[in-house]
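Blinded run. Sample ID left blank on purpose so nobody reads anything into the name before looking at the predicted structure. Input follows.
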Amino acid sequence: MARAKGRVSVARACYGTPPGGGAIKNLIATVFCLGWIPGAPGTWAGIAAAALFVAVGMPTGIYGVGAAVGLSLLGLWAASGAKDVFGEADPGPVVIDELAGMWVALVAGAAQTAPAVVAAFILFRVLDIAKPFGIRRLERIRGANGAAGIMADDLAAGLLAGAIVRIAGTLGLL
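Blinded prediction complete.
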């Protein structure tokens, strides 16, 4: 199997079957290989989430929440076992958590304007990277073969970013 220092090669991970996981599961975990973009793969996944959110009409309410739940469950499934495949607890190429967390930020923030979408994106990325207010501790959650910890911190960052955007919107700042 193509492994270097505990990592799966890009070509094998994106287009083949990585050790311990199926190609479809891996493509979803890496959000169709966005996770392999050097530098800031989580940022690219966040941009993809925002673009998808805008493309499908900025759904909030039951449709937005349903999509957030669906993406979160899909993320739990796709990220399960990632530690075994990639050799890390929260592998960089696995960005389905950023996609789901960003979607949560947009829905929770009821983002319906370009400034609100941009604010949700910036706040989500800052909170996802800084992990304040106990968000970092969520990475240590065990369950779903490692996926619970991978997903939990990003979903919490998304909820917090969404709450801030919603408050800013209510105050007429966005």
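Unblinding after everyone has recorded impressions. The beta strands are 3-4, 7-8.
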